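We modelled the chain as a single entity of 380 amino acids. Its sequence is:
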Amino acid sequence: MEKLEKYIRMCRLAIKQRLSPIAPQDEEKLEAWLQESDENRELYNSIDHIDPAKLNAYYPNTDIEYQLSRFYKKRKRTARSIAWRWSVAAVVVLACGISFYLMDKTEPIISSPVKSISGGVSLVLSDGRQIDLSTTTRPDTMEMGAAIANVQQNTLVYSPFDTAKEVKHNTLIVPKGTSFHLILSDGTRVWLNADSKITYPVTFTGNTREVHLEGEAFFDVKRNEQSPFTVNADQLNVRVLGTKFNVNTFADNGHVSTALVEGSVEVSGKTGMFRRLIPGQVAMIDTIGKIQVVDMELKPYTAWIDDMFCFRNTPLSEILKQVERYYNVKVVYNADYREEYYTGDIYRNKPLQTLLDVLEMTIPVKFELLDQVIYIKRRK
């Protein structure tokens, strides 16, 4: 445990450094630790986003010894769930209530397909027929008038081979508990999150490219200045030429959103007014169509395509809505529940119980998982 305890000491120094100047000897210790490995530097950099004012209010009230004792007990009781490869990251939990779940050291690649954790993805054809893409009996290649669709490695790929006179639409339905990757006939890539649906032309014709989305998707649009690409949803529309952006229509926090990674987009709501975004901006639209554009960290909006949950002072109730969709479970709140907030990055390809263990370590709640139902109450 000496290595873990050293991590804790160094992370505490890093936190103190963010709040106020630290002693020269402590600066030297911290710098020497940062030079030891890339992992140390990654942990140090991972707390850069924390608001010092909020941290200053939280830090004096953090019972480090209590959290450490709970952590050791959990290691003994559930070694398989709390393995060393993430106990290093849990240092930040112990130090200031911020957890970073770093079991996988692979750098995220934004163009990599999302992993699926369960089946049930279905494709509805223009004639109403429905194909279950999650079974081995589904056809690997399907001819659809003016296009051929191939299913490979959790991805549906459309390739046009003729000029279409009649526009036919398909609908891809991704249920709770899974994700899927779609490549449209123009080369546009779409990542669909759990509990989402997209309707699109088999081939694009004319001078427009339009799709309709319910749920959440990340788009990497193939540029075509003669044919703008439009994402239509009930509460917003996004118009682009070629760019990378995320659209979320779940409204877990009371609004739908568009987060722009590259290029530029025009976002409009029910009122018809539109706003143009630049990279690094998020457009949030409320139920009456009012648009608010803010500059903010995009990782919480796009981390899901790299198989991660990313939370920044996020209400636990909002977090659990994402958990319900991704793990296909139901959450039941005890009458004594009060809202809590959490910051941290957690890989989604881990067991649900492990994620709940991480949350329990940092906020005063207790989870009980029974038959795909999560019961939550305040910890006494």
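As a brief sanity check on the tokenised model: The chain has three domains: 2-100, 122-300, 308-378. Residues 2-100 form one domain.
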